[in-house]
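Suppose a colleague, Dr. K., hands you the sequence of a protein chain of 152 amino acids and asks what its three-dimensional shape might be. Before reaching for any lab equipment, you can write down a predicted structure in token form. Begin with the sequence itself:
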Amino acid sequence: MYDVIEHIERPSAALAEVSRVIRQGGVLACRTPNRYSFAAEPHVFVWGVGWLPRRYQQGFIRRRSGRAYPQTWLLSAAELRGIIQRYTGFDAVITAPPIADYELETFSEPRATVARIYNMFTRWPWARHVLLRIGPLFQTIATKRRDNPPAR
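The predicted structure, expressed as tokens, is then:
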């Protein structure tokens, strides 16, 4: 589910269904932009979107960029962890992954420079905790631990 979960209006229902159909020992991989990133929102390149209450995000983006913002609901790492714990039978590890070289090649030079600095921070254990809160993205690798999801 790389770059998918933020486009699902009810991620709890979607992940509950994934949990239902994946057998014990199966793996879910999910990567998504971080709601509370200090970087611009990657779908519309507007700064500060995730820090607003969700009900104000669409109007803010429309005023700042003139673009629509349908079908995008960014999550924080803590929000996704809570959904996984409550609605699925997965054990999840959430990390701040480096940005792949093939992706850096598509960035403008200033953006690529910032991304390389970010990648350097992903290698430092003390910085990983901070990056999960304010970094541009996070990744979840979750393994199904049992057949029945927790009670809702």
